[in-house]
Design brief:
Elements: H1 10-38, H2 40-43, H3 50-82, H4 84-103, H5 108-111, H6 114-144, H7 150-176, H8 180-187, H9 189-193, H10 196-206, H11 213-220, H12 229-236, H13 238-248, H14 252-265, H15 274-302, H16 304-328, H17 331-358, H18 366-391, H19 399-409, H20 411-419, H21 438-446
Helix pairs in contact: 1-3, 1-4, 1-6, 1-7, 1-10, 1-14, 3-4, 3-6, 3-18, 4-6, 4-10, 6-7, 6-18, 7-15, 7-17, 13-18, 13-20, 14-15, 14-16, 14-18, 14-19, 15-16, 15-17, 16-17, 16-19, 16-20, 18-19
Subcellular location: Cell membrane
Organism: Streptomyces neyagawaensis
Membrane topology: Multi-pass membrane protein
Length: about 450
Amino acid sequence: MSVPAAPPGQPRKAATAAWIGSALEYYDFFIYGSAAALIFPTVFFDESDPATATLLSLATFGVAYAARPIGALFLGHFGDRLGRKKIMVFTLILMGLSTFLIGCLPTRDQVGTLAPVLLVVCRVLQGISAAGEQASANSMTLEHAPEDRRGFFTSFTLSGTQGGQLLATLVFIPIAALPEDQLLSWGWRVPFWMSIAVAVAGYVIRRTLDETPAFTRQQTASEGVAKLPLAVLMREHWADVLRVIAGAMVASVSTIFTVWGLAYGTSESVGLSRSSMLWVGALANLVALAAIPLWATLSDRVGRRPVFLIGAAGSAVMMFVYLWAVSTGAYPLVLVLGIVTFGVVYSAANGIWPSFYGEMFSTKVRLSGMALGTQIGFAVAGFAVTFAAQIAGPDGDDWFAVALFTAALCVPPVLAALTARETHKVPTELLGVRATDAPIDRERVAA
């Protein structure tokens, strides 16, 4: 029995849909991070002192990460039961609507404590959406991709994520330059209102995608799709789920760089302007757009593990260098080291985790395994910002403690990579297959 291949052009179509969809979705997700660092302490927590207001605002940023494991349970289940395509469309619509609603929220001056409560509700919906977005897009591209280029094609999802983060940063640069009264009254709402386009664009972009050959084959196999993917996942892949959880903690580098680093750089102790710090993130993301597919292509040749290790271990070191540069207030140094840290070094881990994690699981539980594992790890990364704000001390300027904390969070990803199997040359049909089942699948692949 021959293995059906993806229709001509479908791998590129799936990768393009993953890129555009992730860019749109994570534009929504990351404009919240910029607002949480620069705007929300005043708009939603203005009765608190500045340090406490910032801490509370950054905590709402982490709320979405706490919601993501819950969303992963449901969206992972339905993605492995109903298919990757349906989840990809649903997540974009949910993200677009919840982000638009944030832009419509009343402030604390208008409705009191109800304002931050409504903010948290919308942020939870963002988190649920994000829980299924990357896992479904990664599964779609991996299962469509040629076997010798899985790393390259799946990296488009993360390139899209960086593109969305770049777009979010660029949108906030002119917004942050508005006069204070305009910024705090209506200016901050504009980036959130723009997200309504996500709900429309998401349907148009992804509705024409074909379901993946691997999932279609699983549906028609004698065993069919798993009725309870989570039960199969915990029975057959529990060790890999733990590896993905540990590996996903490397995202702490991203959240601390983009959120805490932004708040620290614009604080009174450093004194850099909002616009200048936003440009650091924008240019770093621009470099990442080029670096991610290059690192992914390298992983197709030398393996996932060594490239991931470069990113995880290198990021632990570079965060000390970058945060030190911020503490000096020397902007050219901050700009160069920010680009190297986030745009180049971190991209080594960030660009290949979609293939690295996805190749750990079989088709019947791939979306569940990636969604659950990454979202638990990402939850740690989301609240890393809140802990960083506490670790930084009452004046929020202990950058060395924050860098040490970030480096400690890079240790589990390093251990996960060291204990993982190398899978870049394993045929797609054999990914995540137990040894007792492998002979049957090998005959099918060879046919």
